[in-house]
Amino acid sequence: MKSRIALVALLLCFAVAGVLQAHDMFLKLDSYFLTPGDTLRVPLLNGTFTKSENAIDFERVRDVALLDTGVVTHPAPIAWHAEHDTTFFGLALKREGTYVLGVATKPRELRLKAADFNAYLKEEGITDILERRKKLGQLDKSATERYAKNVKAVFQVGEATTANVAKPLGFPAEIVPLDNPYVGQRNGALRFRCLVDGKPVAGMTVLAGSQRGHEVPVEHSFVSDAQGVVTMRITRPGHWYVKFVRMVPVGRGGIDYESKWATLTFEVR
C-alpha cells in the first residue's frame, strides 16, 4: 500500500514538473536556409527551446500565417502530425526571399498552485504581476490563467533577401523584426518590436537566447523602450530566439490572469 502511495506521489510530482517546464512554444527549424522549390519541414516545440514536452493537435490552432514579399497569406499546413512529443507540418516554398512564418493557438486555461505560479512568473520575467501579488498579499493564492501562444520563425530561401519583413501577421501578440536578420548578420544589432493586440508595449521584459548544437541556450534579458522596441547585438552563430509574455489581471469568470505569449526564432551562420 505504501509503495502505491509513493508511486502516485511520484507521478504527481512529474505531472507538476511537466506543467512548469512546458511553458514556451517555438517554431525551431533544423535549418533556416533553404532552396526554392523545397517543402519546408517545420518542427513546433511546446516546452523549451531544447525539447518539446508534448505535441499540439491542429484543433488548438487559431491561425497559420506566412509573410512572403510583403504579403500575408494563410496557407494550409501540409500533413500536420505528431512524432513522439513534437509537432511537424510542411510548407511549400515557391520563390526566393525572406519569409516570416507564424502559428497562433486558441486560448486555454490552466490552474496552478501558488508556489508553482510564483515560480513561473519569476522564470518568465513577468515581474509586474509578481510584484502585484506581493503588494496585495496574494503570494499564497493559487491562480487560474487563460493563455494563448503566438510563435514565429524568420527564414531565408535562396540568396535574394526581402526588404519588408517588418509587417505584422496580425496575431494577438507578436515579435516583429524591424531588421532582416539575414542581412549583415554578424556585423551589428537587430531590432525587434513587441506588439500586443497590434499596439507596441513599453517596459516589456524580453528574453533572447542563442544555442549552438545541443548546448544549453545562452539567455539575456532586455526591456522594451517607449516604442516597444528591443535592440540586441548578434554575438555568435547558432539558433536564436526572442520571447515575451504579456500578462494582465482579469478577476472575472473564474479567470485570475490572461497571458499572451510571443516567440520568434532565426539562425545565424
Report the strand count. Answer: 18
The helical percent reads: 10-25%
Task: Calculate the mean pLDDT score and round it.
Answer: 90
- Beta fraction: over 45%
Give the low-pLDDT segments: 1-22
SSE ordering: HEEEEEEEEEHHEEEEEEEEE
Helix/strand structural class? mainly beta
Sheet of most strands? 10 strands, mixed
Shape: globular
- Secondary structure tally, helices: 3
Distance between the termini: 57 Å
Could you explain how this protein is built, in words?
The protein is mainly beta and 269 residues long. It has helices spanning 2-21, 114-123, 127-135, and strands at residues 24-27, 33-34, 39-47, 61-68, 71-73, 78-83, 86-92, 97-105, 108-112, 143-157, 173-177, 189-196, 199-200, 205-211, 218-223, 229-233, 238-252, 255-268. Strands 2, 4, 5, 8, 9, 10, 14, 15, 17 and 18 form a ten-stranded mixed beta sheet that branches. It has a four-stranded antiparallel beta sheet with strand order 1-3-7-6, with no helix packed on it. A hairpin with a 2-residue loop joins strand 12 and strand 13. The longest helix is centred in the N-terminal third of the chain and has 20 residues, at 2-21. The protein is globular. Mean pLDDT is 90; it is low at 1-22.
